[in-house]
UniProtKB/TrEMBL annotation:
Domain PNPLA: 16-175
UniProt cross-references to PANTHER family, sorted A to Z: NEUROPATHY TARGET ESTERASE/SWISS CHEESE D.MELANOGASTER, NTE FAMILY PROTEIN RSSA
Sequence motif DGA/G, location on chain: 162-164
Annotated organism of origin: Alcanivorax jadensis T9
Pfam families: Patatin
UniProt-listed SUPFAM superfamilies: FabD/lysophospholipase-like
UniProt superkingdom: Bacteria
Short sequence motif GXSXG: positions: 47-51
Protein name according to UniProt: PNPLA domain-containing protein
Gene3D superfamilies for this protein: Cytosolic phospholipase A2 catalytic domain
Length: 308
């Protein structure tokens, strides 16, 4: 007969809900690294948009290599990975995701030890779609089809848009995949009014290069800002509209299904396209875990206590 007192306590299944938020999403990297440093290893990852991409890197055990790469990006590198198009969105996304295919693992997500679910939006019906099968990058790409910026993706015979349109911080998806404790990362709390920072604009416009390269730069920047610094440009309008929408949806969804722990990276000066500032975002993510370490361990259990 087994003494109940001798049985090891039940360890909760820890889930991560990694939210949408464009360049702020690099904070997800630091948060995951910070969690591992305090002995917390999530077994379930639900990701929306940039959260789907970072979550995919984590479950395929390539997060550290991915972190090294994003921290090396310059403004010119970021814009160089964008393939400008006017068909369905300003950016096709093919150059960016082809780069990932060449440099990172891309297994079928149903074969992975950790569970991954990405959130997309069915363009025709407006319904929320949870992707749990297929290659990691295809699942992430479908979740990253931000209207007006990235072109939609056809998957399973349906056109998919960004998951942030319906579920910006996918707590519900993490729970459905078996998570007992959900740590949510909300990047939308400070998004309103942030799209393309003035520093990014000036850096992009001031990049050195040939006359042809500079011409391309100015043409690309024309998509993002208006000639009149006072009036909002096309990208300003699209980005601000999406940011407002995601902020409101996030508040509603998280009020109805609150996570056990909510982490909000303090990146108020980060704009939507500041992908070259990964180092700052990653550091904030790691610091955030340190600040909330006691709360996190209260829910998931102390690794130190478990070893005693």
């Amino acid at each position: 007969m087994t003494d109940i007192g001798d049985q090891a306590p039940h360890k909760p299944v820890v889930g991560l809900a990694l939210g949408s938020g464009s360049a702020r999403g690099w904070a997800h990297i630091g948060i995951i690294q910070g969690l591992e440093e305090i002995g917390v290893q999530p077994q379930v990852v639900a990701g929306t948009s940039i959260g789907a991409l970072v979550g995919g890197a984590y479950v395929t055990d390539t997060l550290n290599e991915f972190a090294d790469w994003v921290q090396s990006l310059t403004v010119k590198d970021v814009f160089g990975l964008l393939d400008i198009s006017l068909s369905g969105g300003m950016v096709k996304g093919e150059k960016l995701f082809n780069f990932f295919r060449e440099h990172h693992e891309n297994p079928d997500i149903e074969t992975l030890e950790k569970k991954l679910v990405t959130v997309a939006t069915d363009m025709k019906s407006g319904r929320e779609v949870w992707i749990t099968k297929g290659t990691m990058l295809d699942a992430a790409r479908a979740s990253c089809a931000l209207p007006g910026l990235f072109s939609p993706v056809k998957m399973q015979g349906r056109w998919m848009l960004d998951g942030g349109l319906v579920n910006p911080v996918p707590v519900s998806a993490a729970r459905a995949m078996g998570a007992d404790v959900v740590i949510a990362v909300n990047l939308n709390a400070q998004l309103v009014g942030a799209h393309l920072s003035r520093d990014t604009r000036s850096q992009a416009q001031g990049e050195e290069g040939s006359d042809e390269e500079r011409s391309i730069w100015h043409k690309m920047m024309g998509y993002f800002i208006s000639e009149d610094g006072d009036d909002p440009g096309f990208f300003d309008v699209v980005a601000s509209s999406i940011n407002i929408m995601q902020d409101r949806i996030t508040r509603s969804r998280m009020a109805g299904d609150p996570p056990e722990v909510t982490l909000v990276p303090m990146l108020e000066d980060f704009a939507l396209m500041d992908f070259h500032r990964a180092k700052e975002a990653i550091e904030e993510g790691r610091s955030l875990v340190k600040r909330y370490e006691s709360d996190i361990l209260a829910w998931v259990g102390s690794p130190v206590a478990d070893r005693v």
